[in-house]
Amino acid sequence: MQGVASQNAPSPSLVVPHFLLGGLTLLVVTILIVLYPGAFIGHYFNPKLLGITHLLVLGWITMVIFGALYQVIPVILEVKLYSERLGFASLVLLVSGSVLLAAAFWRFELGLLLYVAAVLITLAVLFFAINIFVTSSRSAKRSIERDLILTSILWLLFTVLAGGVLGLNLTMAFLATPHLELLKMHAHAGLAGWFLQLIMGVGSRLLPMFMVSHGLRWGRLRAAYGAVNGGLLAGVFALILQWHSGVMAGTLVVLAGIVLFLSFLWDAYRKRVKKQLDIGMRQSALSFFLLLPPLALVLLLSLLSGRAASFTAPMALAYGSAILLGFITSLIMGQTYKTLPFILWLKVYRNKVGKGKIPLPKDLYDERVANIQLWVYAAGFFTLLTGIVLQWPRLIAIGAALFCVSVGFYNFNLLKIVLHKPVAN
Amino acid sequence: MKINSQTKISALIKENPETIEAIASINPHFNKLRNPVLRKILASRVTVADAARIGKCEPAEIFAKLAAIGFEVEREETGDRIEAVSSQHSLIQEAIEAGRVETLDVRPILAGGVDPFKEIMGVLKTLPPGFALEVINTFEPAPLILILKNKGYLSEVRNEAGVIYTYFLKVGEEPVQAPAADHFFRVSIEELEQHKESYRGRCREIDVRDLEMPLPLVTILNELEGLPENHALFVHHKKTPQYLLPELEERGFKTWIADIEEGNVKLLIHR
Known about the structure:
By secondary structure, chain A is an all-alpha fold.
C-alpha cells in the first residue's frame, strides 16, 4: 500500500498572472507592429525587430508556458510543485527582464542595460528550471511527456546562455564563428529545442485528453523525441563549425521528428471519441495548419543558404513570423480556452459539484467573442504574412491592426474568465 | 453525548471527568492519562481511534468503557479495519544508516512531570541539515508528529519491544505532503476486486473514460452525492484523478486506486 498525496494543484494566484501578463504583452507587441511596420522590412537583424521578437518570445510565449507548466507538471508527475515562492520570484524576474531586454534592443543600448536584462532573464529561467527539476526529482512517474518537457527546459537554458554570450559578442566580437550564424543557433535552440519540444511534451498529454482519444501511438512520440534532439545537437555543432551539409542534415532530422509528432497527433485526432471540436480546439487545429508553411520555408532556406540576403531575408522574416505569431501564438490562444477556465472553475466550483446546478468551464468565457477572435486573428495573420513576403509596410500595419483587435477580444475573455463570480443557484 | 471514533478525548473528559479513570483502567498504556501534563498535551489532539492505536487496544474496548459511564456510541460502518501504516521514508532510513542521528530520550523528562515539547524543539533547531532526531518514548507522539509535519518534517515510528522510537527529518519549510494514509490506498487490482466483493450488491459502477474533463470529476461527485449509505462506487478511469482526490478527502470518502496500465485505472470509493 502506497500513500497518495491529495492536493497537488498549485495556487491559481501563481498560474493566473502568467496568462494575464502574457495576454497584455501580446497586445503591446501587436500595437508596436502597427506603429512600426518598418521593423519587418529589410534584414531581420535590426533593433526594432530584435526588441519586438524578444518581447514576444519571453513576455508572451515563455510567460504563458511557465504558468501552464506550474499547473500541468503536478498532474503529469503526480507530486506537488516544489516551491510557489520560487515561481513568483521567477515571474517578477521574467517580467522585468523581458521589458528591459526589449528596450535595450529597441534603443540598441548594448551596454549596461542589455547586461542587466540578460542577468534578470537568466535568473528567471534558472529559478524556473530549479523549480521544475526539483519537483520532478520527487516523482517516480516516468513518461515520454516528462522527458520532452525536461529536455526542452535544458534547451531553454542553453538558448538563454547562448543569447547572453551573443549579447557580449555584439560589443566585444570575440567569437570566431560569424555572429549571424550563431544567431541562427540561438534562435533554433529556442524555437525547436524549447518551444516545439515543450509543445510536443505538453501537447501530447493535453490534446488527446481534450479529444478523448484512446490507444495512442507512443512509439512515434519517442522517435520524434530522439529525432528532434539528435537533429538539433548535430545542427548546433555543424553551425559552430560552419559545416553546411551538417546543418542541412540536422534540419532534415528535426523535420522528420516534427512529422512523427504530427502523425502521433493525427492518429489521436482520428481516434477521438469527442467528434465535435469546440472553439479552443478549433483554434488549436488551425495552428497546426499554420505550422506547415514555415516547415516548407525552413527547408527552402537551408537549401538557399549562401544566396544573396536581399533574396532570402523576406523569407527568413516570414518563416520566423509564421512560427511565432502563427503556429505558437494561435496554439496558445486556443489552449488558453481549454486550460484557464478549468483552473478558475476548479477554484470556484470544486466543492459545489454534486450539490446543485453549476456551470461548466466553457460557460466562463464568451464563445461568440472567442469565435470572432479566431476569424479576425486568421485574417490579421495572413494579411501580416503577405505584407512581410511582399515587403509592403502598409499591409503589415493593416494585418497587425486586425491581429491587435483579435488580441483585444482574447484579453476580454481572459479577464471575463479570471473575474468570474460564482453563479448562485 | 453521542460519540464516535473521531471524537476527541478532551471533549469526553470535559463532558464527564470519569472518562479519565474509565479509559485508564483498560490497560497500563493509558496510565499517562492520569498525568495532568500529559493529559493536557494529548487529550485535545487525540481521537478515540488514535487513542486505541496508541494504547494498542481495539476501539470497541474504549467504547465499551465509555458506554458504561453513560456515553452514547454512534453506530459506525464496520468495514475492513484500516491500519494506519507509518510510512517508511527512505530519506530517514538513509540518515539512520549513515549514522546521522541525534537521540533524545524523553522518558525521564516525562517521569518528572514536564512536557518535553520545548526540549525536543530545542534539539531540532540545533540539528545539522540531513540529520534525523530519534525521540525515545513509551507511546507514539501523535500530536508532535502533526505539528512537525506542518513545519516540513518527515517522521517515522518504530516500535521495539514496547519502546517507541520516533524519527524526525526536516525536508523543507512547507508542510510535508504526508501520504494521506487514511483516505487513499494504492492497491493491486486483485486487492481492489476483493474489496469490491465486500460491497457485493451495494456497489454502483460507472465508466468515465470517454468523458472530457471536467465531466469525469462532475459525474463521479454527482454519483457519490446520490449514493445510498454503506454503498460504494466503482469507477473506470483513464488516470489517477489528480483534481478529484482532494475533494474526495474533504468530503470524507476513502478511495482505493488500482493502476492497471497506461490509460486504465480502477477506483473504488466509499465512506
